[in-house]
Design a protein that fits this description.
9 helices, 274 residues, 8-stranded parallel beta sheet, binds zinc ion
């Protein structure tokens, strides 16, 4: 079985066919999906957990887990009640990760100092709740500004051995290596298949098998040949096969390794029944 380590299952783009969409994932060999709880802002942070509770236990669907977190550009809305909500959600057994949180200097939005403060506060909350973090990091084009700030913050404020995931990785080898050095997994999304992504493919080809995950980031970033369409967890298989070819491995090897890596980071089988 395969794991989609990052999908926004609460997106309203699945309102009409969410169960059928999850059924297609199961049919494609996706046994587990981590549903990302950021919504359109802190007021919707709980929606991923709601989706888990709605569908877990139904036959022939992937097992679902949730995260909760405040997206970098939503940190302007991160008041004490938002942080309290995050703390409460991370106490739920199905909410196995805090994210996606991080720094985004690419898009216009929350000022950098607000993003940094929001990230630091969430790292503290995640550490107290013993939850790994899902990191979104996007620098300005051609720069490493967000990465440099991120690693500085993690060094100072993420002193646990809980680890985390660099979600939808788009950095260079230097950033991948530093991520592995601090015990993070590096997750590849459908953009790995895009024509302009050769530098990313070069990084992926160097990755150790015990450091990788695959994800869809659905409903965004559909892999080739579905680029531009609404993405969905079933299609994580395309990215996994693509990554397998870059690494010179059989797809089954990549399916097994990414699944093992996910369960090493989240030993959830022990704590969450379904
Ligand atoms: Zn995402």
């Amino acid at each position: 079985m395969l794991i989609d380590s990052h999908a926004h299952l609460d997106s309203e783009r699945y309102t009409d066919d969410r169960e059928a969409m999850l059924g297609r994932a199961w049919a494609a060999g996706v046994g587990t999906v981590l549903s990302i709880g950021i919504g359109e802002g802190p007021a919707e942070m709980h929606q991923a957990l709601d989706v888990c509770r709605q569908f877990n236990g139904r036959p022939n669907l992937p097992r679902l887990y949730a995260s909760a977190g405040i997206y970098p550009h939503s940190t302007t809305e991160a008041d004490d009640s938002a942080f309290a909500k995050l703390e409460a959600l991370l106490a739920e057994p199905e909410v196995i990760a805090c994210g996606e949180i991080g720094l985004d200097y690419y898009h216009e939005g929350a000022p950098r100092d607000v993003q940094k403060r929001g990230l630091i506060r969430q790292l503290e909350i995640a550490a107290a709740r013993k939850r790994p973090v899902l990191i979104h990091c996007r620098p300005k084009d051609g720069e490493t500004d967000a990465w440099d700030d991120l690693f500085l913050i993690l060094e100072q404020h993420w002193t646990t051995d809980l680890g985390g995931i660099m979600h939808c990785f788009g950095g260079g080898w230097e950033q991948a290596r530093r991520s592995l050095d601090i015990g993070f997994l590096v997750s590849f999304a459908g953009n790995l298949t895009y024509p302009k992504a050769q530098p990313l493919r070069d990084v992926a080809a160097r990755m150790p098998l015990d450091g990788i995950l695959v994800e869809t980031d659905a409903p965004w970033l559909a892999p080739a040949p579905n680029r531009g369409e609404r993405n969905e967890p079933a299609w994580v298989a395309q990215t996994a096969r693509f990554l397998a070819e870059l690494l010179g491995k059989e797809p089954d090897v990549i399916f097994a390794e990414t699944t093992r890596n996910f369960h090493r980071l989240f030993p959830v089988e022990k704590v969450v029944g379904n």
